[in-house]
Structure formats: structure tokens, C-alpha cells
Design goal:
This protein has 1523 residues and is α+β, with helices and mostly antiparallel strands. Helix content is 48%, strand content 8%.
């Protein structure tokens, strides 16, 4: 009963502030309706489970039914209100005023239109299970992965046995949940009449699944009722419960009248009201976004489009399409001011000068008994001051002054229930300006105001005016120190919240959604709180728990979070690299936490972990295990080792739990010997510690070596690597011994080896089944067997060999390397890595030659992995593999499951296992012993054959990275499947393939000889320089005091980017002398600086550009094993074609520096580029684990698979449902939601709904700006998609502006020399040509042609298309000779690629004929005129002016959108037939390959001319072919 009362009390207390995600109607603009189960279920769950800790801890910051993490978990209910205001704008504007958008039940559609609470909570509710079991099975979220999973992946689960397979009980629960997972709501929406006090009544569209609380939030956001916070909703005189669902309220029906009744204030309600008023007054102020506070971030889409619309209205006939000079091709100007365009309209006149809490607070006892709650002080714009009393009945002006306290009402008895109404009465300017503010606020898109789940920081900001704000001051110095006003007298127990959310049930979809939503909410709050705490620790605002220790050894506890610094405390990492190892250990640990969280074993717990880099320090923030601070570590650890293997302990419970996780993480259980000589079996790395907390939970921590070591960077005496790896100059010495392989690599390696196993075994089985085939192929088979016996490791490369043989299909590359191809054999490729650290001159020259040859060998498709088998064996195996049938593979899987009685089958499995490098001969089993090379660990039988196999598997995985994944990455870049724009996208692309950043030098060495990859080489070198600078910056910043921060950072940037040979640090003591001191002689500057700032300034003040670049070269050489051929910024930019603005952006984002928004003169050699005033702020760089919405992700993947199969409608429904599920888990703002919206916009566009596509894509752009950043490569891509949809909707000016924006951002991010720029320039040129700006169009199209020629080669279809487009523009200008030349080039390519009879070749030939005829006529006329023929006259030349429809068709082609005829029957069946597609939706811009003869291939983004494909009369449907 006591617990129940606690819950009840908290529920009632927080009734008006509880956050909720947008409902079906709120999200009607985003999808067909979000799930509502989680919202009500969480409240019912609280009551059912009676967990006061969860309730208390989550309310206001960590509540499972709250929206995304927005308020950093620390601000109280006023911030809940603010979030609710933001969220419900969508409801007010998009849901409640558009009855036709309410989701109607679709009995044919199995997808989740909003799971009824009946599935988990309310069995009596009206709901209906979908009858069609096939649909039910198809839509079930647990079955989705198999829908788009590979055949091999399915086999993998069968053959691997235990590894990666679900338990039987889990499978049963899946079956049981199928019915529950497919519930369709049958309730329909209805309308209520809302009657607020004073203002007019209005109608509101609601859904039965919504809560009363949502109506409350709508009212707080509506323009006419937003000034009210303290009210109740009444039906027939009865107060409605805020947490009741509308369908459960008796008497509530269509047309019911709900009255808004003002309620008496309490102190808490009064404070909430004041904060709400403050938030309204600040609602258009962008300072929070610039300052990186309250999860606000920037968006400029509306600013750009509004400017365009205004220009169009003012002069509707003319289209302003002239780009600024800095956007023209070949311009070197890179202005930064345009990065953040400021709209003049966004500035709103101030409503008040001052609104603050009065110094007369709190009310004395006598006044409390008269109802006084608090006192406020207000200064209006007219200059009059007022002291206001907040009482239980409302607000009124009292007679107090600054010097005298007189709480009696003033003579003019202005009294109002709302503070806004009171201020309207006393200040006419307030009334006028506040009305304007509300109007502009209502015009803003909701996505511009909804907080993001994690803080996004801007690396540039204008100088913002700092205004008086008592609420902000109160937040900074009271509640932000860790005490929440909604949790009286206690801080949040982050560990309890984190673990309790993970314990929530997950049997069916509604429960999983509720659980994932709670996990995400608590995690986002924890990240925000940890970030604030880490900044407070470094800024010196938190006292250490061991203040007597050295600064680097100090530890901190703040807000129930434990903080430790990234230094080697007590020589803990002495044997592993000291501070270098201590710095990388938190990142490795975070990856381990992520892996165990994803495995999600019930009963096994990890700590909440965040890694923060701030001001040069690395801080690890962790939740605290209950009781761990009360006892010594030796007493706490019951599993693992605290001294890297000397003493090892274990526990049966931990063995049971970790055995489950080890199966999925591919960790091999292994036996070690402890200090007493006892034998102990370990199911993780030796450093992993198991601690049982006082709460009875089993925690694992120190997961830094969850994955096996990277033996390529771990030289061990006596351990030999493969010859091909040694030839690449491995192993290499690294600065620490904690180099681990990434989880992505482990998964890719196991999958690759499994494919070798399956296909090899299938071939042998087929040979046994077909004796005649076996006889014919006996020789190749023998060759295969021999090769395995000689070296089974090398056979593992066979499959990759097939892929790598086509690394270069591009003719340009062949031309680049053809001269050397004949001279090389496979062994040349073994020299591909950089060995520049050789000091001997002869060795160095030989090495350079070998590297060039090796690079060419790799690029031409040769690879060391060919050494594994002889040629005959490879050819025969490849030929057989292509004939492997599904039956053969399935037969193999079945063979694995049954007891092998057939000795021949045993032999097949044994051979296949040996070929794949399996640890056992009876099945495919590849798992890793993470301690196999660990020093200090005593293994049980280190000389045994099994232990040697374990070593070999780790070596094979590291080798696979070098000779498998890196060449694959390069091939994908050559084929333009990926084209990273900046360091962030490069890092993501490498990590997705399991390639660590320390391999940048290896990749750079390989691609340096390939002209078509010059952009990648430039990006790789830039990334190495920036990361080396970041390493220097961290050490540099640790010696800088607070008073010197801006001076020191500006000096660092000047040394890094400035051309001034010896920049002097700015005079930092000017402030102390009020800036009036005259300049002293130069020789005194440094002395004065040191005197003013103290001894800590000596190190950083003495830094010079020469010293910095010397350090950078040494760092790149040591860390990346790459030699920089430059010694200053100028030689670096010249040698590697880098641009300074790109380096500045990369460094600021990686180091957390915010600089002033202005145009910097990077070319000056006479003064410093940066001053101390240019450094605005220092931000933390945060690493954390982003929780996954598993069911939503499965829907999304399945939707993409359906689209690729040609089932557009089904794909649309699946992705739309994924959007709803993402909304339910993440809230309304998340990068995954932006991705869903982009895909939905694309599908809408394909189905001819251009308006819907435009609306959806606008939201995707805003969300990408808010969640990723205004200059993130994803945002650039979103802008281009939006530009296409704008053009399709006739908004030509908007389309051009968006294209210009994309080009401008790309110029800043990576410069003009990038393959993506050809795509942008082609779009811009086409649109300019369409509006008659031929001269401008020609400049962009010519630039696009040159870029395409450089990166795609002379025989590429993209080059043909570029030539054709340029030829069209020349012909429209009357320059037929030049047009003829370009079209001939296009014709030649088409003829070579397709032959003379292909449609594209014929079209080009016809265009050539027309051009020739026009050129001949033109020349005849000119000749006659020259001869003086009086009858000669210029005949009108038929210029080809493109129509808007024609331009749109060509734009579609360039952007990967193709329309092909589809029968009307298919359209009616909602299934359209297309060619088979194999690549994901994201790769729609990939270049088309030449189709083989006799094969029909759909046109690709670059395979056609500008001529649209004609539609058949009334029998066609537009459809996209996605490559």
C-alpha cells in the first residue's frame, strides 16, 4: 500500500507535466499513425509493478512515457511543458484540424496502424485480429529479418548450431506473439468542442486512444490558449483524469462539450507558469541552438525557402537564377558567412526588458497565510517597473519597490489568472509585440522547435547578445547541480533506471516498444547529464572523492555518475602503453558495452557508459554499481581478473550468463590457470570483471578487450604472420597494445569463411552425387585438396578473390595501370603497404617501386589471396560454385544436423572445415579467444594443436582485413558505390567494413597511384593530418588555464592554418587594463603574456608553425605509417590539393571548438588569421551507444527489400510503419526518422504524388539539419532530393536555391574536385538551361563533364550523358560545330558499350544527323552571305529549347529515377514488375554497368540521354528502377 500511495502521489503531482510522444493525429504528417500502446501501458505497468524508484527517477527526465531526451535530465517540469508545447504543435496543426487524415483501420493491411492496448493491457477493448495468416506471418516483426536476409545467412544459422541461434523457448514466444503483434485498431476518431475561458470555443479532432493529457498540451500550444498552464478539463462538471484514455471516459462522445476551468495555483504551479511564460518569450530566440543547450539545434531550410517565396511574389514573372560568384565553377572563394543565413524576419521586437524573481522571495509567514506564493519583478518596454505577486488566485501588481516591501495590491487593481493577461493590461507594447511573437511562432514548423534526442553542436556561431534571464541563471546555479525539484531531496539513480528499463518485459511487440522507448529515454537523459557533469569536472566545479591524489589520478561523483580521467592511474596500463593505452581503453570499453547491450542477455547487466572529450581531457562517465564504493575491488570481483591474468576468479552464475553472450559474440570459452594453479574456464576476455551489486544484479565491466587483438599491430616474438602480410610490412609497432579488431570485421570474416565452407562442401557433395562430373573434374579437385593440405589459411581467400578480380572494371583505371599490368604477377601485390619508415636509401627506393607496382596490382584486380589455390583449382571451384543449387546447400545444412553415418560426408565436412579454417573438423566453428596473445595470461595447454588453431583464427581475421576488406573498400569507391565527402563519412564507411582508422596510411598508399581515386587520396591525407592535429591539440590544451583558453586556441589555429611564419600569441592581458594600453615593443609581448597568465602559459605560447608541422609529420608517420611530403600548411595545400576552410571545419568539429561566424582571410601572410575574440566556445565531443529500435529497423529493412523486388505499395506501407515505430521509440526527432521520411518522399514521387513527396522531403531536410548538422553530408544529399521535388512541383527558383545550397555546402566540406560535384553541377546546369540561362548552364555542365571524365573515365556512360547534355546546350546557342563534337563522343561511347542497334545509340545517331543538317544549312547561308548574294538570308534556325517536362525527365535520369511501362493489371494488383535489383535504395546514383548481349537491362542513372521514355496510352504506370 505504501508503494502504491507513492506511485499515486507522483502520478497526481506530475499530471500536468507528463511528456508523451505525438499520437496518431499528431503524427499524421509523418505517417499513418504512431503506436499508442506504450503510452498507457507504461502508466499501467508502474501501477502493476509498484516500482517507486522507476517512477521517481524517470519523471521529468527519465520517464518511459516521456519524449526524447531533451532537457538533459536535470531541469524540472517547466522543461517538460516546453517539450510538450513543441511536440503538440504538430498535433494542433496537422492532426486535430484535419479530420480526413485520421487513420482508418485497414483489415487487408497487416501493418501496425496503432496497436490496441488490448494486446497487452485491455482485453475488453474493441480490436480485431487480422484474418489472413499469411499476411500476419509476413508482417510479424520477428520474421522480418529472414525476409530480406541472404540465403547464406539463413544457412549460417542452421549450420552453426549453437552459434547465433535463438533458443527454442524464444522461438515459441515468437509464435505466441504473432497474433498479438498484428492488431488493427477499429476505433474511429471523433470531434470534441472545447470551451476555454474568455476566448472562443473551437472544435478538436481526437482519437479514442489518446489521453486527456494530450488535449491539455494542445491547449498550452494553441495561440489563443497558450498562456494558460493551471487548468482542468471538465465534462458535465466532472474533472477529467489527465491519464485516462478518452475511450474510457463515460459520456464522452462525438460533439461533447469540454470546458477549460481555471484552477488555483500552488507554489509549484506558479513556478511552472513563470517558466512557461519565459519559454514563450524566448521561443524564437536561437541562442540555445548556438550555445548547444537544451537539445536545441539549427535549421535554415525555412529561411532559404521563405526568401525565395518572397522574391517570387514580388516579381512573379522573372526567375532570379544567377548564382553568386563564389558558387560559380572554378571559383576559389569560400565565404563562411553564408553557412548560417540569418532571416531578417526572424528578429522579433522584445516584449519585456526584465522578467525575474524578486529579491523579496520567499513570502514571509504572514503573507503565506494570505495566499502569496512568490514575488516577481518586471520592467516593461515603456521603462516602468512592477513588483508582481503570484497568489493562489492568480497574479496582481503589489506596492513593493526595490527598497520597500509592501505586498498589498496596487491602486490599479490589475489581477489576472495568467501572467500574460496581466502584462497585456499594464504594457501596450507588450500586448502588441507578444501578439506578433505568437503569430510568428505559429508559422514555424514544429520540427524547428522539437528538441533533438542528443545535443548537436555548431562549429560556427555569430556573436549573440547576452541578455538578463533569471530562469537561465537559476538553472545554472541551482537545479543544474544535480537536484531535481520534481524529486524532493534526492538525485536520480541512473543505474537503477538503466537496469530497470532493461528488465521490462519483451514478449510481444507492444512490450518491446515500451521497453525500447524507456531504454532510449533513460539513455538520452544519462548522456546529457554525463556530458554536463564531465564539463563541470574539467571546469573545476566538482570536488574529487580523492582530493589528496595527483590531479590526473582524481575521480569524481556527480549526480550519481562516476567520472574518471583518461590517464594511466597507478601504472595500471604500464605494460600496454601507459597514457596512450589509458586514452584508448574507454573507447574500446564502450564498444564492448555496445556489443553486450546488443546481445541483450537477460540477467546480465552493463553500466551506463559515456566517453567525453573536453578541453583536451578524456573523461569516462559511468553509472554506479550499488555497493561498489563500500568495499575494496578485490572483494567485489567474483569473475575475471583485476591484474590482467595473474589472479583469476570465476562464478557459476557468471559462467552461465556469459556462455550465452559468448555464443553470439563469437567468443571461444577457454581455460586459463590462476595464481594457485587451478584450472578456470573463462567466457570473455581476462580483463572482463563480474561484480554482483547490492541490488543482486550481475554486472560486467572493463570490456575493453571483448574482441580479439589486431595482430597486425601487435608484434610478438616468435609469432609469424603469413608471408603476404609480412610483405606488406606487418606487424607494425603501435603506441599501445590495446589494438582490437572491430566487431564488424569479425562478423564479415565469419560470414566470409562460412561462405567458403558452404560452397566448398556443396561442390564436393555435388561431385559425389554426380560421379561422371567427379571423374571429369578429378584433377582440379585434387588440386584443391593439395592446396588445403599445404596451407589451409590461404584457401580462405578464394571467395574474396572472385570479388577482387573485378576491383577494376573501369576503363580509366585499366588505362592508368595497363602499362604495368603485363609485368606483374600476384606476388607484387604483397608490397602494397607503406614501408616508408625504412631508413636505408636503397631499401627506400626499392620500396617505392614495389609500392607503385603493388598498388597497380591491387587496382587491376590482383591480390595476394590468389596465392591460396593454383589457377586450375580456382577456375574449377568458381565454375562449380556458380552451379551450386539451393538444394545442395540445404543438403549440407541437414548433413550437419544429423549424425554423420556416411564416411564420405564426414570427409566432405572435414575438408570444408579445414578450408574455412574451422576450429573443429566436424562442423563449421569459428570463434575467437580474445586472450590468445595476452601477456600475463597462463593458458592451460599453450602448445596444443587446438591452441595453435585459436592463434591461427585470430591471424586469419587480421589478414582478412588487409587482403579482403581494404581492397573491397577501394573497389566500392572505384565503382562509385560509396564516395565519402568528409572525415565523418569516411570513418563511418571504414567502420562499417570493420577497418580501423589506424589503417588510413595503408589505404592512402594504395590509392595514391590511381587518378580516379584522387579525391579519396586527398580525403585520406586530410583525415590523417586532422587526427594528428587533434592528438597534438589534446596535449596542448592540458597545459592551458581557464583564463588563457581563447588565446591559446586561436594561437593553435594560427600555427596550424596560418601562413604567417612566426605568429605571436595575442595579448591576453588587455582585458585587465581595460583595453586602453598602447602597443608595447614586440620583444616584451611574450614576457607580459607569461606574467599575466602564469607559468601554465609557457608551453603553449612558445608553439610555432614550424614546430607544429614537424610534430604533425612525426605523428602521422608514427601513428599511420605514412610520410607527409610537406612541412607547412601552404606546402600541404599545394601538394595534396587541400583547402584550409575544410581543414578548419574538420578540426573544429573533432576538437569541439566553436569559432565566430565570419569570413576569414586564409591567404594573408602579414597577420594572424584568428584572434582571441574569434573563439566563441569549447564544446564536448561525446561518444555513446545509440539504442536500436529493433522492430522498426526490421520493418525498414523489409520495406527496402520489397521496393527492390518491385512491390512499391507494400514497401511503402512497411517503411511507413517503420516510421511510426521509430516515432514511438525515439520520439519525433531522430536521424533514423529522417531516413524513413526520405524514402517515403522518394516513393511518393515515384507514384506521381509530387506534392506529398515535397512535404515529406522538407521534413527530412529539417530533421537532418537538426539531428546531423547543417553541413553534414546527409543534409547536403537531402537538399538535392528536395530540389528535385521542388522542380517537379513547378518551384523553379526554390529548386535552384536548394541546388546552390548543396553546391555551397559541398565546397566547404570537400571542395570542388569530387565525383558528387559532377552530379550537383549537372542538376544545376539542366535547370538553368530549362529557364533559358544557356551561358550559365554551359559553365556548370562543362564542369560536370570534366569531373565525370576524370572520375568515371572516357568510356563511361556517365561521360556519354555529360557530353550529350553539353551538346544540347551548344546546339540551343547555335554553336552546332561544338555540339557536334560533343555528341560524337557520346555516340562513340554508346556504340562501344551497347552496339549500333541499341536504342541509346540510335537516339544519339539521330541527334547527330539533325545537328549535322543544321550545321550544313548554317554554313551554306554564311557562305552565300560572304559571296554577296543579295537573295541570301538567314533562315530561322530551329533551336532546341527544352521544355520543363523534358528537363524534369532528364533530372530524373541523372538522379536515378526511371519510369518504365507497367501493365494496368499490375497496377491494380499493387505489384509492379521490374528488373531484379541487388543494391540498396541508397545506391540509386551508382553508375550502370555495360549489359551483356542478349540481356535486357533497365536504364540506369547514367545510361540514357535526355530523351524521356515515352509512355503507352492509358496502359502504363510510372515506376522507378533502383540500382
Amino acid at each position: 500500500m505504501a508503494e502504491d500511495s507513492v506511485i499515486e502521489k507522483n502520478t497526481s503531482e506530475n499530471a500536468e507535466q507528463t511528456q508523451k510522444l505525438p499520437s496518431e493525429s499528431e503524427l499524421s504528417c509523418q505517417g499513418d499513425g504512431a503506436l499508442k500502446t506504450a503510452d498507457s501501458a507504461v502508466l499501467k505497468l508502474k501501477a502493476a509493478t509498484a516500482q517507486p524508484n522507476l517512477v521517481n527517477g524517470q519523471r521529468g527526465g527519465g520517464d518511459a512515457d516521456s519524449g526524447p531526451a531533451t532537457m538533459n535530465g536535470m531541469n524540472s517540469d517547466h522543461q517538460d511543458n516546453r517539450l510538450n508545447d513543441d511536440l503538440n504543435t504538430t498535433e494542433a496543426q496537422n492532426g486535430h484540424e484535419k479530420p480526413d487524415q485520421v487513420v482508418q483501420p485497414d483489415t487487408k493491411c497487416p501493418f501496425l496502424n496503432g496497436h490496441s492496448e488490448a494486446s497487452a493491457d485491455d482485453p475488453d477493448s474493441k480490436s480485431e485480429v487480422v484474418a489472413d495468416q499469411s499476411d500476419a506471418t509476413e508482417s510479424n516483426s520477428e520474421d522480418l529479418p529472414s525476409e530480406n536476409g541472404t540465403e547464406e545467412g539463413d544457412k549460417s544459422k542452421e549450420v552453426e548450431g549453437e552459434n547465433g541461434e535463438r533458443t527454442d523457448s524464444e522461438k515459441e514466444s515468437q509464435k505466441d506473439s504473432k497474433v498479438e503483434d498484428v492488431i488493427v485498431i477499429q476505433d474511429t476518431a471523433f470531434t470534441l468542442k472545447i470551451v476555454p475561458p474568455v476566448s472562443e470555443a473551437f472544435e478538436l479532432q481526437v482519437s479514442p486512444q489518446e489521453m486527456v493529457q494530450e488535449i491539455h498540451q494542445v491547449l498550452m500550444d494553441r495561440e489563443d490558449t497558450c498562456h494558460r498552464t493551471c487548468f482542468s478539463l471538465q465534462l458535465d462538471g466532472n474533472v477529467l483524469d489527465n491519464f485516462a484514455e478518452l475511450k474510457s471516459i463515460e459520456g464522452l462522445k462525438e460533439g461533447s462539450v469540454v470546458k477549460v476551468v481555471e484552477e488555483p495555483y500552488t507554489v509549484r504551479e506558479a513556478r511552472i507558469h513563470v517558466r512557461h511564460v519565459r519559454d514563450l518569450l524566448k521561443s524564437l530566440d536561437p541562442s540555445d541552438a548556438y550555445n548547444g543547450m537544451d537539445c536545441q539545434s539549427l535549421s535554415f531550410l525555412t529561411t532559404i525557402l521563405n526568401d525565395d517565396r518572397k522574391r517570387t511574389k514580388s516579381n512573379a514573372d522573372s526567375v532570379d537564377c544567377t548564382p553568386p560568384d563564389y558558387l560559380m565553377p572554378s571559383s576559389k572563394e569560400r565565404p563562411l558567412l553564408n553557412l548560417q543565413p540569418i532571416s531578417k524576419e526572424s528578429r522579433v521586437a522584445s516584449c519585456l526588458k526584465v522578467l525575474t524573481v524578486s529579491g523579496w522571495n520567499p513570502p514571509p509567514g504572514t503573507r503565506k497565510m494570505h495566499g502569496d506564493l512568490m514575488y516577481l519583478y518586471v520592467m516593461t518596454m515603456e521603462g516602468t517597473s512592477h513588483h508582481i505577486t503570484a497568489s493562489t488566485r492568480g497574479f496582481y501588481i503589489n506596492q513593493s519597490t526595490q527598497e520597500m516591501f509592501n505586498p498589498k495590491p496596487a491602486e490599479q487593481k490589475h489581477s489576472s489568472h495568467s501572467l500574460i493577461e496581466l502584462l497585456n493590461k499594464v504594457s501596450p507594447i507588450f500586448k502588441k509585440n507578444f501578439a506578433q511573437l505568437l503569430k510568428k511562432r505559429a508559422q514555424r514548423h514544429p520540427f524547428e522547435r522539437v528538441p533533438t534526442p542528443f545535443q548537436v553542436y555548431s562549429w560556427m556561431a555569430p556573436q549573440m547578445e547576452h541578455t538578463i534571464d533569471s530562469i537561465r541563471a537559476e538553472d545554472a546555479y541551482t537545479s543544474r547541480l544535480g537536484y531535481e525539484e520534481h524529486i524532493p531531496g534526492q538525485t536520480r539513480d541512473w543505474n537503477e533506471e538503466t537496469q530497470t528499463t532493461r528488465e521490462l518485459p519483451r514478449k510481444n511487440l507492444p512490450e518491446r516498444l515500451l521497453r525500447e522507448r524507456a531504454i532510449f529515454k533513460v539513455h538520452s537523459d544519462f548522456v546529457a547529464a554525463a556530458t554536463r557533469g564531465a564539463m563541470a569536472v574539467i571546469d573545476g566545479n566538482v570536488m574529487a572523492i580523492n582530493p589528496g591524489e595527483d590531479t590526473k589520478m582524481q575521480m569524481f561523483i556527480w549526480n550519481n555518475i562516476f567520472f574518471s580521467l583518461g590517464f594511466d592511474v597507478k601504472d595500471h596500463y604500464k605494460e600496454f602503453g601507459g597514457d596512450a593505452a589509458a586514452l584508448v581503453a574507454p573507447s574500446n570499453d564502450l564498444q564492448g558495452v555496445k556489443a553486450y547491450n546488443n546481445v541483450d542477455i537477460e540477467g546480465l547487466y552493463t553500466l551506463g557508459t559515456v566517453v567525453i572529450d573536453y578541453r583536451g581531457y578524456r573523461i569516462t562517465a559511468q553509472s554506479i554499481i550499488p555497493g561498489i564504493l563500500e568495499r575494496e575491488q578485490e572483494e567485489s570481483v567474483i569473475y575475471g581478473s583485476i591484474d590482467f591474468g595473474k589472479t583469476v576468479v570465476t562464478s557459476e552464475k557468471y559462467q552461465e550468463l556469459l556462455a550465452k553472450s559468448a555464443q553470439q559474440l563469437k567468443i571461444l570459452p577457454h581455460k586459463v590457470t590462476n595464481h594457485k594453479g587451478g584450472e578456470i574456464e573463462i567466457f570473455s576476455s581476462i580483463e572482463c570483471k563480474g561484480i554482483k551489486g547490492n541490488d543482486g544484479r550481475h554486472y560486467v565491466l572493463d570490456l575493453l578487450r571483448t574482441f580479439p587483438p589486431d595482430i597486425n599491430f601487435l608484434p610478438i616474438e616468435g609469432e609469424e604472420l603469413n608471408d603476404d602480410v609480412k610483405a606488406l610490412d606487418f606487424p607494425r609497432q603501435h603506441r599501445h597494445k590495446l589494438c582490437c579488431l572491430r566487431q564488424e570485421l569479425i562478423e564479415a570474416f565469419v560470414e566470409h569463411q562460412y561462405m567458403v565452407f558452404v560452397r566448398y562442401a556443396a561442390v564436393l557433395l555435388m561431385q559425389q552425387q554426380k560421379p561422371e562430373t567427379n571423374e571429369n573434374n578429378s584433377e582440379p579437385s585434387t588440386n584443391i585438396d593439395k592446396s588445403i593440405e599445404e596451407d589451409p589459411n590461404k584457401t580462405s581467400g578464394t571467395e574474396t578473390t572472385k570479388d577482387l578480380d573485378v576491383i577494376i572494371s573501369n576503363d580509366t583505371i585499366n588505362e592508368a595501370v595497363s602499362e604495368k599490368d603485363d609485368k606483374k604477377d600476384c606476388n607484387d601485390c604483397q608490397e602494397e603497404s607503406n614501408k616508408s619508415e625504412e631508413t636505408d636509401d636503397n631499401k627506400k627506393s626499392d620500396l617505392n617501386d614495389n609500392l607503385k607496382e603493388a598498388a597497380n596490382a591491387v587496382l587491376s584486380g590482383k591480390c595476394p589471396m590468389l596465392n591460396g589455390l593454383d589457377t586450375t583449382g580456382i577456375e574449377q571451384l568458381a565454375e562449380n560454385i556458380t552451379n551450386v543449387t539451393d538444394e545442395a546447400a540445404k543438403a549440407l545444412a541437414e548433413t550437419q544436423k544429423k549424425k554423420l553415418t556416411d564416411s564420405s560426408h564426414k570427409e566432405v565436412i572435414a575438408k570444408a572445415s579445414k578450408a574455412a579454417g574451422s576450429l573443429v573438423d566436424t562442423e563449421f566453428d569459428i570463434r575467437f579467444n580474445p586472450d590468445v596473445f595476452s601477456e600475463g595470461v597462463t593458458h592451460l595447454n599453450p602448445e596444443s594443436e587446438q591452441f595453435q588453431k585459436e592463434k591461427r583464427v585470430v591471424k586469419d581475421a587480421a589478414r582478412f582485413l588487409l587482403v579482403g576488406q581494404i581492397p573491397t573498400f577501394i573497389r566500392e569507391c572505384l565503382e562509385h558505390n560509396i564516395a565519402p565527402l568528409d572525415g565523418l563519412t569516411l570513418t563511418e564507411a571504414l567502420h562499417q567494413r570493420g577497418i580501423n582508422i589506424r589503417y588510413l596510411g595503408v589505404i592512402a598508399t594504395i590509392v595514391s597511384t590511381a587518378p580516379p581515386l584522387s579525391y579519396l587520396y586527398r580525403l585520406l591525407v586530410s583525415e590523417m593530418i586532422i587526427r594528428a592535429a587533434k592528438h597534438s591539440f589534446k596535449i596542448y590544451m592540458q597545459g592551458v588555464g581557464m583564463v588563457s583558453l581563447s588565446v591559446a586556441i586561436s594561437h593553435f589555429l594560427n600555427c596550424f592554418l596560418g601562413s604567417l611564419p612566426n605568429p605571436q600569441p595575442p595579448k591576453a592581458d588587455d582585458e585587465m587594463s581595460n583595453g586602453h594600453g598602447k602597443k608595447k615593443r614586440n620583444k616584451k609581448k611574450t614576457a607580459r603574456l607569461i606574467t599575466a597568465l602564469g607559468q601554465d602559459s609557457i608551453a603553449w605560447a612558445s608553439l610555432s608553425p614550424t614546430e607544429m608541422w614537424t610534430n604533425l609529420k612525426a605523428e602521422v608517420k608514427e601513428y599511420f605509417h605514412f610520410k607527409l611530403e610537406c612541412d607547412s600548411i601552404d606546402t600541404a595545400t599545394e601538394t595534396y590539393n587541400l583547402q584550409k576552410v575544410t581543414l578548419l571545419r574538420e578540426l573544429c568539429t573533432k576538437c569541439g571548438v566553436q569559432i565566430l561566424l565570419k569570413d576569414y582571410d586564409f591567404d594573408t601572410k602579414h597577420k594572424a588569421i584568428f584572434t582571441e575574440n574569434d573563439i566563441i566556445n569549447v564544446f564536448p565531443v561525446v561518444k555513446h551507444i545509440n539504442p536500436i529500435a529493433s522492430d522498426a529497423y526490421n520493418f525498414f529493412q523489409s520495406g527496402q527489400a520489397k521496393i527492390q523486388q518491385g512491390h512499391l505499395k507494400e514497401g511503402f506501407e512497411l517503411i511507413n510503419e517503420a516510421l511510426n515505430l521509430f516515432n514511438n521509440v525515439y520520439g519525433p526527432m531522430h536521424p533514423e526518422i529522417a531516413s524513413c521520411m526520405r524514402n517515403l518522399a522518394r516513393l511518393n514521387y515515384l507514384m506521381g504524388e509530387h506534392g506529398e513527396a515535397l512535404e515529406m522531403q522538407q521534413k527530412a531536410v529539417m530533421m537532418s539539419e537538426r539531428c546531423n548538422g547543417v553541413d553534414h553530408p546527409n543534409t547536403i544529399s537531402e537538399y538535392m532530393h528536395l530540389a528535385l521535388y521542388c522542380f517537379a512541383n513547378g518551384q523553379v527558383t526554390s529548386a535552384l536555391k536548394l541546388m546552390y545550397r548543396s553546391r555551397y555546402l559541398t565546397l566547404l566540406v570537400c571542395g570542388e574536385d569530387h565525383p558528387e560535384m559532377a552530379h550537383f553541377d549537372s542538376n544545376i546546369g539542366l535547370v538553368l538551361h530549362g529557364v533559358g540561362e544557356s551561358d550559365l548552364a554551359l559553365k556548370f555542365l562543362e564542369r560536370a563533364r570534366k569531373t565525370t571524365l576524370k572520375y568515371h573515365g572516357t568510356k563511361s556512360l556517365k561521360t556519354a550523358l555529360s557530353n550529350h547534355l553539353v551538346g544540347r546546350v551548344y546546339s540551343s546557342r547555335g554553336d552546332f560545330r561544338t555540339a557536334l563534337r560533343h555528341e560524337k563522343e557520346a555516340y562513340t561511347i554508346y556504340k562501344e558499350q551497347f552496339g549500333e542497334h541499341h536504342e541509346k545509340t540510335k537516339e544519339s545517331s539521330e541527334f547527330l544527323r539533325q545537328l549535322t543538317q543544321q550545321a550544313v544549312n548554317f554554313q551554306k547561308t554564311m557562305n552565300e552571305i560572304r559571296k554577296g548574294n543579295s537573295r541570301a538570308a538567314m533562315r530561322p534556325i530551329p533551336f532546341s529549347v527544352p521544355s520543363i517536362a523534358g528537363v524534369l525527365d532528364t533530372l530524373n535520369m541523372i538522379n536515378g529515377v526511371f519510369f518504365i511501362p507497367v501493365s494496368i493489371k499490375s497496377k491494380q494488383g499493387a505489384k509492379t514488375t521490374t528488373t531484379t535489383t541487388t543494391e540498396p535504395l541508397e545506391s540509386i546514383k551508382a553508375e550502370a554497368e555495360t549489359p551483356p548481349e542478349g540481356k535486357v537491362e533497365s536504364p540506369s542513372p547514367s545510361s540514357g540521354t535526355a530523351s524521356p521514355i515515352p509512355e503507352q496510352d492509358c496502359t502504363t504506370e510510372k515506376m522507378e528502377v533502383l540500382r
